[in-house]
Design goal:
mainly alpha; 10 helices; 62% helix
C-alpha cells in the first residue's frame, strides 16, 4: 500500500534520508568522474562516451544521465573538479608574501600535483580535447583563489612591479607562459620516466624541479639570483 501524502512528505523531508541520498549521489558522481578520467588517460577523448563510463563502473547509462546530460557536461565537470583540486593544493602558497618565493613554490607545487594526481594532470594538460568556454565553468576566470593560471599571472605581475625581474621582461602573459613551460616539461618528463628507465639514470623529480627553477630564476631575475630562499615563509614571517 502506498504511503499517505503526509507520510510521504515525512519520508522525503527526513534529514537522515536526505543526507543519505546526498551522500550516495556524491559517491556516484565521484565514481563517474574517476572512471571518465581513467578513460581519458588511457585512450583519449574519442574513447570516452557516457556508455563507456557506465560500463567501466557497472552503472546503467540511465544513472550517468541522472548526473550529466551529455559528454560535454561530463568533461566540464571533470575539468572543474580537477582544476579546483589544483587550486586547493595551491591555496597555502598564495600566502607567501614575497612574490619571487611564491613563484618558486608554485613551480614546485605544479610538479608535485602532477606526481600526486597523474591521471588528473594527464586529463587537464595532455589530453587533446575541445576548448571549454570559461562562462560554462564553475571556476570564475581571473579569480586568483580558484583560477591557478590567474594566480600565476598575479604573482608574475607582482614580481615585475617590485623590480625582481630583468627590466626588459615586462610582458606578464608571456612570462607566465614561460614559467609554466619550465615546470611543465619537468612534470611530463617524470610522468613518463619509466619508459626510458633502462637508458636514463633519473634524478628525483622534485630535485630536478628545484634545480630547473633555480637555473630559470637566475636567468630572469634582475640580480641573477634564484628566488628559492626562504620558500616556506608565509605572510612575511
Amino acid at each position: 500500500m502506498l504511503p499517505k501524502q503526509s507520510e510521504f512528505m515525512a519520508i522525503s523531508t527526513d534529514p537522515i534520508a536526505i543526507s543519505r541520498r546526498s551522500r550516495e549521489k556524491g559517491q556516484q558522481q565521484k565514481a563517474i568522474l574517476d572512471a571518465a578520467r581513467e578513460l581519458f588517460a588511457e585512450a583519449g577523448e574519442t574513447a570516452v562516451t557516457l556508455r563507456a563510463v557506465a560500463e567501466r563502473i557497472g552503472y546503467s547509462t540511465t544513472v550517468i544521465y541522472q548526473h550529466f546530460s551529455d559528454k560535454q557536461s561530463l568533461i566540464q565537470a571533470l575539468c572543474d573538479h580537477d582544476f579546483l583540486q589544483m587550486a586547493k593544493d595551491f591555496a597555502s602558497l598564495a600566502d607567501i608574501a614575497h612574490p619571487g618565493q611564491r613563484l618558486h613554490a608554485l613551480g614546485l607545487g605544479y610538479v608535485s600535483f602532477a606526481l600526486q594526481h597523474p591521471n588528473a594532470f594527464r586529463f587537464l594538460f595532455l589530453t587533446d580535447r575541445a576548448a571549454l568556454p570559461p562562462e560554462n565553468s564553475a571556476i570564475p576566470k581571473g579569480n586568483i583563489a580558484l583560477d591557478t593560471y590567474a594566480l600565476l599571472k598575479h604573482t608574475i605581475a607582482e614580481c615585475i612591479q617590485q623590480g625582481l625581474l630583468r627590466s626588459e621582461l615586462k610582458d606578464v602573459e608571456q612570462m607566465s607562459q614561460l614559467c609554466w613551460a619550465n615546470v611543465h616539461g619537468i612534470a611530463c618528463m617524470h610522468l613518463y620516466s619509466s619508459v626510458h628507465q633502462l637508458w636514463v639514470d633519473w634524478r628525483p623529480a622534485m630535485e630536478n624541479a628545484e634545480k630547473s627553477l633555480e637555473i630559470f630564476e637566475r636567468g630572469i631575475s634582475r640580480d641573477g639570483k634564484p628566488f628559492s630562499r626562504a620558500v616556506k615563509n608565509r605572510k612575511g614571517k
